[in-house]
Amino acid sequence: MNAPEIKGYCPGALRPMMSGDGLVVRIRPYNGRLSRVQTKGIAALSLRYGNGIIDLSSRANVQLRGVTPDTHAPLIDALRDLSLIDPSEAVESRRNIIVTPFGETPAAAHALTDALGQPHAPALPHKFGFAIDTGPKPVLQTAPADIRLERDLKGELILVADGMSTGKPVAVENCISEALALANWFMDTRSTHNRMAKLLGDGATLPDGFNTARQTQTYAPVPGPTPQGMIAGMAFGQVTAAAFATLGDIRLTPWRMILMEGCEHAPQHDSLITDPTDPLLRITACTGAPDCAQALNQTRALARHLAPHLKPSQTLHISGCAKGCAHPKAAPLTLTATGNGFDLVKQGRAGDTPAASNLTQNDIIKALSHAP
Ligand code: SF4
């Protein structure tokens, strides 16, 4: 079996990535929000220049699929008209910011966007990112980010280097300059490291002042009403353009869910999940075959087949190859496609040593019934 190809960068709009169904064009919505005009516009462009399928990524970005090299340029022009395109590929690559969907959009999100757009901003590694998690309670602690703004136990702002249990007190006025100073410290210290938690885990010592205890996240996202509007899930983070066009003003999340602002009832669409007990919410499945060129089998068809067999206590990751894009961390149960059925990995990642191999669908259903 060929080892999966590691591309080492996240796709953008200006720097799309080729997949089995064409170019993946990733839009990074400013401040984690899209207006009604933008959601409708993106849906129309997906139908016109892509294949009518829209993804929500684990970094709270929106992806158009099925774009061709010929349709990419007119698509970018149209997205620019919707104020969704960065001035350059370098700025787009740096502007990895996830924003809490709760409360007002923090001023820090605007300020950080502005700071990362400056020519002297640090040239951060492609996957390096920021989380503005400044609502009353942290909600983004499991989302991928290297530098975080959160509130401590007293509700004061702290700057957190990912992987640490303590942060540095900062003020609203200086939180972004402090975040950039931490980013510059990372760049000066990192050697070959691309991520903050790995650098610190390998023994790097932060500058002074990072001693204030963080809150621990207790929030678990589920579809349903919130003070800001209705949250709905998307099976495998994917939705049709027709459904996307009806969402109105939305806030993006890294949970494969969107928050429809001011909305009390989610529109009914097959690709929207409104029942918090829907087992599809507990299955993570990457694109798989045929839309990912590296996939060794279908993943999402299998997920829908297995969903009714999943116990309420079980969560499942299904990966089309050993790369494990959709869930790079360990999961209680992972099914990894091979050239010959699926491997079952327990408490591990897609590429880890399996507990069982060459499983058929019936074998898998039996294994789920025996697993906790
Ligand atoms: S994990 Fe899935 S999406 Fe990622 S390369 Fe493998 S098959 Fe493709």
Automatic annotation (TrEMBL):
GO molecular function: 4 iron, 4 sulfur cluster binding; metal ion binding; oxidoreductase activity
Domain Nitrite/Sulfite reductase ferredoxin-like: 16-81
A Pfam family that the UniProt record links to this protein: NIR_SIR_ferr
SUPFAM superfamilies listed in its UniProt record: Nitrite and sulphite reductase 4Fe-4S domain-like, Nitrite/Sulfite reductase N-terminal domain-like
Keywords assigned: 4Fe-4S, Heme, Iron, Iron-sulfur, Metal-binding, Oxidoreductase
Keyword Heme among record annotations: yes
Stated name of the protein: Precorrin-3B synthase
Source taxonomy: Bacteria, Pseudomonadati, Pseudomonadota, Alphaproteobacteria, Rhodobacterales
